[in-house]
Amino acid sequence: MYTPHPGGSTRESGGREARGSGAVTLSDNRPGAPAGAHHEPALELLVHGVGGTTPQEMLGDPRTVRVTGDGTAGIHRRTDDATAEDRPGERPAHPPSAGRAPRPIPEAYCWSNLTSGNSARALWLLLLPFMVANLAHWMRPAAPARHPAQRVYDVLVRLVALSLTVLLTAAACEVALDLVAWQCAASERCAAGKPWLRPLTGGWWSQPGRRLVLAALPPVALTALLWWLSHRTWSAYESASPPPRPPGPAHPQPGGERPALSLPGFWYGRRLVSRLRAAHTAAGLLTVATALLTAVLDHDRRPGGPVPTGWGWTAAVAVAAGWAATVLVAVRKGRTESEPDERIDRLASTVLPGAAVGVLALVAGYAAWPRPGWSSSAQLPGTGVFAWLMLLQGALAAATAVTAYVLHRATPPGSCAGRCAMGGLGGAAVALLACALGGVLTGGTAQRVADWLDKDGTPGMAGGAITGPPVLLSWQAAAIPLLLLVVLVFASGAVVHVVRERGRLTPGIVDSYEGEPREQASRSRRIAGAVARARLTDAAPTLIASVTAATLLLGGGALAGAVRTELPPGAAARAWPGPLPAAAEAAQALGSWLMGAVVLLLVAMGRRAYRDAAARRTIGILWDVGTFWPRAAHPFAPPCYAERAVPDLTWRMSTWTARTGGRLVISGHSQGSVLAAAAVWQLDPATRGRVALLTYGSPLERLYGRWFPSCFGPGPLRALAEEVDCWRNLWRRTDPIGGPVLVDGEDGGPEVDRDPLRDPLRYGRTPEYPLPEPIRGHGDYRADPAFDAERAALLDRLAARGGPSVPAQPDRGAVG
């Protein structure tokens, strides 16, 4: 057996926990080797987590040098270790200490600039619905890949994503075409004092059709901007090709399939992104064309029009054919992960957007034809599309839920183990929330622009200069206060739960620190409170389920309210008797301001997150989880940093072990542990045999395993543990993010999870440590003595398989 470092708990060779203090002696299943001359180097590759850090902090030395990479992501070392492999007999311990063998060469992979940068990148937060929809693709249950429902699920999620692009473009058309060009430009009161509206109120452009054509430029520019951002970010972040690797056996998960993250093409899907980019670009352009055509055809259906009817019907047929081609391209084929998919469908990627531009030009020419006597009033014809979009998105979300349920029932035994969030329905819930978030941003923008245009009145009310946005958007605003009330009730329940859990845990805290001085009960309460708050993470599925159910009910109520508003006054009164109309109006007014505030809040949070590291750590968890996954459903989602980071790490491990013949332990904290695991999965078997994996504060099972079971569920994690014989995971009960990976050792092998580390390391004050030890929670794992012991044990196990051993060397200057 081996005894623990002070403050840490370890395992006996039979798996029982032993407490005490003293030197570290390797257990039977961790054979060591005598310290002495070492000719083969050992490397520790550190990968930081959410929020990022500097190379100096990771390496514990103010003098660092970048050995490979660029300013976006790179490998850094201490200056003294820059050429350590070339000096195998001269590698000093750090800090120097007589009588100690050299520790492994530490180097840090810094990837924080992949997800942060200047404050202008905060505008990515406005594309949050796209990112959330993309998450739904990866939340599918862990059913066999060849199950027929897998294809259906992928198609449904891609259709949800396509509907969000249409919704965003329709919102831009609502603002530019309806509120500005159709309503405000036609109202003398609204246009007064707005010199920027003069091109629309006088001269050749003053006719309604021509005003709409000119106002269509901003939505078209928005679509072009999204296309450019998607293309540029692919080249900058996601075009890193994986290293070539020879074919080799891989441990299958239950059902006999290889884990998805071990497939060579998982992190390189150029063909699908290119095809989806073309489809969504065409959808945006066709949405603008449809808005123009609907308004013009509504006028031209009247008899005696000056425009040839054949032109209008030709444009209508062209628009319909464009939509059919767009949907076909979006759903035709999914990801190819068995090999890097570097091909591009030239026909879809270039012809489809070009054809959409041609259709838009045809419709614009038709709309600009002279129409004497045409005037605009009320709302732009065709604004009822928002109701149809809402119905379509609800139907797609319901179909996704049914498909996910079928897939969950087909999951092989042991591939979920009852840990899947919401019983496998997490993807459907997230897809619905993406649609709801898109509706909030759409309605909030339209409401705020309408209020800004009609400064002296209230749009749609008596005295208002313009009619305002569609009534459905107002009813969506009315649902926002009620949804916030649901969240507030849940938050209140969480507070009560934490207080009760803290009271239950407090008496037993002091008993876990045997032989240490006892202090006041407040110390125990603080520790128990940290544990209770950390456990709230496990309640996230309940929160998402509650919000999803409330969103579904309130969305249905908003749609019913919009239909009710369109009824004649007498029918409306019979449909909604009593005080409900007044309450609905009050909720609409409050929700309208809240919807606008959400848009401003997202921008403000994003700007602060990119300027303030503390704020970034607060909101960076969701952001880094969302942008970890490749863009498999929505090409306009923020770029996937892992398609750069995972190949970087794989290349580094492959080339370093091949060049030096040494041993390597990749050490990942928090989100860095997910990157490390994904990179190890991509290694060929020969390289993987010289690599150990050390994870700490890891969300691999607690977050990714529950919400993304097809990639990180019990089956894939068990397969990874079988492929990586040297894997150890450290965790604390006070950690709100990290946790055990729950993979037990089989056939007498070592378990992956270590017993939970003490936090704090010491309960009270001692002569050696007179000041209170902090409660570290999710941070500073490398400051725990157990970290050095586990790192040394992993390197010793690698040495037992054919190389020398490197004893443990405490690294007091570096924390993670």
TrEMBL record:
Residues 77-93, 751-762 have a biased composition (Basic and acidic residues). SUPFAM superfamilies: alpha/beta-Hydrolases. The chain crosses the membrane at residues 152-172, 212-229, 278-297, 309-331, 351-369, 385-408, 420-441, 478-499, 543-563, 583-604. The keyword Nucleotide-binding does not apply. Keywords: Membrane, Transmembrane, Transmembrane helix. It comes from the Bacteria. Residues 1-102, 741-783 are annotated as: Disordered. This is Integral membrane protein. It comes from Streptomyces taklimakanensis.
